[in-house]
Write a structure and sequence with these properties.
α8 packs parallel to α14, α10 crosses α11 and α13 packs across α18. Strands 1, 2, 3, 4, 5, 6, 9, 14 and 15 form a nine-stranded mixed sheet that branches. A three-stranded antiparallel sheet has the order 18-17-19. It has a two-stranded antiparallel sheet with strand order 7-8. The protein has 23 helices and 20 strands. With 720 residues, the protein is α+β, with helices and mostly antiparallel strands. The radius of gyration is 25 Å and the shape is globular.
Length: 720
């Protein structure tokens, strides 16, 4: 959820009066932080996932399912282990917006060893089991993106009613009671109240209803003149959704900026692949994803900022909500694809430039800082800008975009990071682990093969809207960058070198270079910059080519670029020197993007497989990764359906469904009972998971002792 400062929340009027104070000091804090840490080098790959969960209570006698408002109580118990042994716990637990939500992460980040991929699913299972032990028999922890009847009558346990006319209510919603907001930290109700007050009215989230043969119009609560709209009117409808997020530590700021840019065009692609939320307020809708719902749920822009009335009291017309897709790239290679006019605070921008920040990063921060703070605590008003970063993080953490560029925290061993934020939460640990491992592997392929997925921001924006359409994974097409011959050549080279590696293993002389490619004779080739021993299961994923053609000697193979994001050389995948810009990009299906289209793009899955063939992987990890890749390629091909499509089919085929778009309490109960069976491995759903794929991984919650011994022997045991 972002920064959770402790203290006493200020009223909106007090917060508004301090907006410029927060902005000024936040900028100074970023400048100071940047100069302290811009030259930081050599951080190893670390990464971790965040899974958000909903606690559901079943009434089997009445056949009703409700969200259980137990998060505060559960977190108190879950956090006892962390308090007793902060460095030894296997999981960490944090609050989320809903009083029925919790967020779980691994106790420690995963690292650069291939064997770490085999730990992810087991850790997710452990988290689920850890919560389950604290629940009553009629309760269940679920990794579902949205509770289908959130906002429908009596959706909470204990029952709570909305108070739209109560001036003390934070949400003043017609449907979402304040009791459903997490009560254990003042941030959540403060944000709810202040976003509403800054906007000048309640938020307005509009979804088109799925029109079936007997759908009654107007939909209950539909705005005047919009009879087919399902209206949601509170922050909780968006921030009360769950998601699956990943954070990666880069080896330096240059690599972080490159990863930020290269992953941004993949955000709508992964959103479509993970679509999991077609039902809102008990209605089937035309949307399969949560993204626009959350975007509208925290849209604090005034009528002036939204362009509905002329500018008077406000400074800017702002095109998007503070929760949306990114608006600009950060690396020099990406600058030419910033084709959407960027609104930013000129005063902030000039202060950043004068403070030694380069243009691309300065405009990014100045764009974030067009937003006012919407949550401020009295104890945090006055800070030391040389040491504190709370004012910067106050603005940064309430710009919820598809990607987040994260500077190192002050006085921390943590490096420059990027956060990948679009994915929807999946039903099973297998699915969530598959998505996580796929994206992490993709980052290694991007860096190792120096791939370029840069796409004009305008086309990424278009893709974000396409991704949320009903059954977009199978039916829609997305703007995507065509492959150059260089990509094909790298893949072919990897295949050939993998064969050489196999022969070299026989001779016991295989090595692994900085590009993640094997060299069978143990010597350094002209295009290889760095090598490290390769033994079974010890392959590390930190290495990749140095874009300025020199080696920095780091075992992590960091990009040895300058700290302003320059790579000191042309992009090695798509040089654009003789490209027609309009021909660089094509509309491709999800299947073509993931599995390839001849003479256009080799496919994300084949590229990962090519990379893996050049890495030595222990048998169990290889088995697990292969099951994940098969799942991804089958879902992308349409052989397996998305969670959203599966949920629609469950509703439409339910004997109680009346062809009226309504998901009744009984339908909701049966749907969630079936989901419970899936996540517990008791319910087989071939259309969703295939024939038992989720039970075939070799995931473990530890690296086997024999492999650990080998890792230590070869100096590959890194501090996790």
């Amino acid at each position: 959820m972002g920064l959770l400062s402790e203290g006493s929340p200020l009223s909106w009027e007090e917060t508004k009066a301090l907006a410029d104070h927060v902005r000024e000091h936040g900028v100074n804090q970023f400048i100071n932080l940047y100069h302290r840490l811009k030259d930081r080098q050599g951080d190893i790959l670390k990464w971790g996932d965040e899974v958000e969960y909903i606690i559901v209570k079943f009434d089997d006698e009445q056949q009703v399912a409700r969200v259980a408002l137990r998060a505060q109580e559960l977190l108190a118990e879950l956090n006892e282990k962390e308090l007793a042994d902060p460095k030894g716990v296997k999981s960490l637990w944090r609050p989320e917006y809903g009083a029925y939500m919790i967020e779980g992460t691994p106790g420690k980040p995963f690292g650069g060893l291939m064997a770490h991929f085999n730990l992810v699913e087991a850790n997710m299972r452990y988290r689920r089991e850890e919560v389950t032990e604290l629940l009553a028999k009629d309760e269940c922890v679920m990794s579902i993106t949205n509770f289908p009847r959130l906002g429908a009558p009596n959706f909470t346990y204990p029952l709570a009613q909305p108070r739209p006319e109560d001036p003390l209510s934070s949400a003043r919603s017609l449907y979402f009671p304040d009791e459903a907001i997490f009560p254990g930290h003042p941030r959540f109700k403060t944000l709810t109240r202040n976003i509403r007050k800054r906007r000048g009215e309640k938020v307005s989230i509009k979804l088109k209803v799925f029109k079936d043969t007997k759908t009654k119009l107007p939909v209950e609560g539909a705005p005047p003149g919009e009879p087919d709209v399902v209206l949601l009117d509170a922050m909780g409808f968006g921030m009360g959704c769950c998601c699956l997020q990943l954070t990666f530590q880069a080896c330096n700021i240059t690599e972080a900026r490159r990863l930020y840019d290269q992953l941004a065009p993949l955000c709508p692609i992964m959103l479509a692949l993970t679509a999991a939320s077609p039902i809102y307020r008990g209605y089937l809708t035309e949307s399969d994803c949560r993204w626009n719902v959350i975007s509208s749920s925290v849209d604090c822009r005034t009528e002036e900022e939204r362009g509905l009335v002329p500018l008077d009291k406000q400074k800017f017309r702002i095109a998007k909500s503070r929760y949306d897709s990114i608006d600009s790239y950060l690396s020099p290679e990406g600058a030419k694809y910033n084709d959407v006019p960027l609104t930013y605070d000129e005063t902030v921008y000039q202060r950043l430039i004068e403070g030694g920040i380069d243009h691309l990063l300065a405009q990014h921060v100045a764009h974030l800082f067009i937003r006012d703070t919407v949550s401020l605590f009295s104890e945090k008003v006055h800070q030391n800008d040389n040491e504190d970063t709370d004012h910067f993080e106050n603005i940064q953490s309430t710009n919820w975009q598809t990607m987040r560029f994260k500077p190192p925290p002050p006085n921390s061993s943590i490096g420059w990071r990027v956060e990948f934020r679009p994915c929807e939460a999946q039903i099973s640990d297998f699915e969530n682990a598959a998505i996580v491992c796929f994206v992490v592997l993709l980052t290694r392929v991007i860096l190792s093969y120096q791939l370029n997925f840069l796409t004009p921001i305008s086309k990424v924006d278009e893709n974000m809207q396409t991704a949320q359409k009903r059954d977009a994974c199978r039916k829609e097409k997305f703007w995507f960058r065509k492959s150059s011959k260089t990509t094909e050549q790298r893949a072919a080279k990897a295949q050939a070198q993998a064969q050489a590696q196999a022969q070299a293993q026989t001779n016991g002389k295989a090595t692994l270079n900085g590009n993640g490619l094997a060299n069978g004779n143990g010597s350094e080739n002209g295009d290889q910059e760095e090598q490290q021993p390769l033994t079974n299961g010890t392959a590390k994923m930190n290495g990749h080519g140095n874009t300025n053609g020199t080696t920095n000697g780091s075992t992590n193979g960091c990009t040895n670029g300058s700290t302003n994001g320059s790579t000191n050389g042309a992009d090695s995948d798509h040089t654009d020197t003789d490209d027609e810009e309009n021909e660089l990009f094509q509309l491709l299906s999800i299947n073509e993007i993931f599995n390839g289209k001849p003479n256009v793009f080799p496919g994300l899955v084949p590229l990962i497989r090519s990379y893996l063939q050049s890495m030595e992987v222990d048998t169990d990890t290889h088995c697990t990764i292969e099951q994940y890749l098969r799942f991804i390629e089958k879902r992308a091909a349409g052989e397996l359906i998305t969670t959203a499509t599966w949920m629609r089919e469950q509703v439409l085929s339910h004997p109680d469904y009346k062809q009226d778009s309504v998901v009744s309490e009984r339908i909701n109960y049966d749907l969630l009972k079936r989901i419970q069976g899936i996540q517990e491995g008791k319910q087989v759903e071939p259309a969703l998971l295939g024939q038992g794929y989720h039970s075939k991984t070799k995931t473990k919650d530890f690296i086997p002792p024999a492999l650990q011994k080998q890792l230590a022997k070869n100096g590959c045991c890194e501090e996790k």
